[in-house]
Amino acid sequence: xxxxxxxxxxxxxxxxxxxxxxxxxxxxxxxxxxxxxxxxxxxxxxxxxxxxxxxxxxxxxxxxxxxxxxxxxxxxxxxxxxxxxxxxxxxxxxxxxxxxxxxxxxxxxxxxxxxxxxxxxxxxxxxxxxxxxxxxxxxxxxxxxxxxxxxxxxxxxxxxxxxxxxxxxxxxxxxxxxxxxxxxxxxxxxxxxxxxxxxxxxxxxxxxxxxxxxxxxxxxxxxxxxxxxxxxxxxxxxxxxxxxxxxxxxxxxxxxxxxxxxxxxxxxxxxxxxxxxxxxxxxxxxxxxxxxxxxxxxxxxxxxxxxxxxxxxxxxxxxxxxxxxxxxxxxxxxxxxxxxxxxxxxxxxxxxxxxxxxxxxxxxxxxxxxxxxxxxxxxxxxxxxxxxxxxxxxxxxxxxxxxxxxxxxxxx
Length: 412
What we know:
By secondary structure, the chain is an alpha/beta fold.
């Protein structure tokens, strides 16, 4: 059942698209007014270790498509309806690449995906080669957009921002509590995602005088227990542990911390896929209390964001993770570009995406705005903490719902 505020959100999506359409210039490439159905291709891990997150993203796309269609479709194209053409990456770069090629062959107007940076790197290459717009809902590796691509865009902050910001936030909240950090241990999954965030954190930590302890890695796809790794953290004498991983392994880390009980003042996720999610306190139990995470996050003060999470829960009988909102907003970006272009011509849609200005459901420094490199320049990493069984934003103060509790004594 839709809430009244969500109806307003849908109306805002539609009216925003119409306003953009009014700015469209030039011809329509021969496709304006002809298309009755416009396909959007999705690439997410719908099977494998990260299927839970992939399904969330896929569901976000479905809700976005439904919102656009319910609001009248793409009005600049005669009310053409959006249609999902889905692909399962299975969490592997090769499958993601072959599925991207298939979707391009199917005639999709744009691609959305993929959750994993290694997969998105391959998909971005396919998109560039075929000149099909690719909107990355979740994928943080800086290198993806370092090749001068023109057809790829990223909704979330890149890894380097997460790592740098996490180091800054750790220093700020520990000093504010008069409880300085003595040593930071870092646990991360071993692909470009975890490694990239770690390297950025380490560089900023060394600049700001934080002592780094051991770097401990693991294979997120195969790991079933992190007790040995957390024992290494305990032996190191570190009083802060930073973690960069996905949802399933984040829960494993929390349970291992509760078992091993290292003497930590804080566990801080840096773009971690678990610690700021609404399901985490349920899945990790009492082990989750006090956990921090530096990540993209719903705007908890936004009525539209609250309406989206309510709709997601009523539709899918599950709590919405923030990635679902990024996927939803990716569809809004594509729909607004179709309105502005008045065409399904890929180059015109690409140019319209580059001029995006839409208010997101996540915390930001303003409307979605892509840089020349395709980065969303207004995306904002914030610090959340699990308090009273739910993650809430605690830093920076401008976005905070509550104040941080530090030290947090996680796992005790």
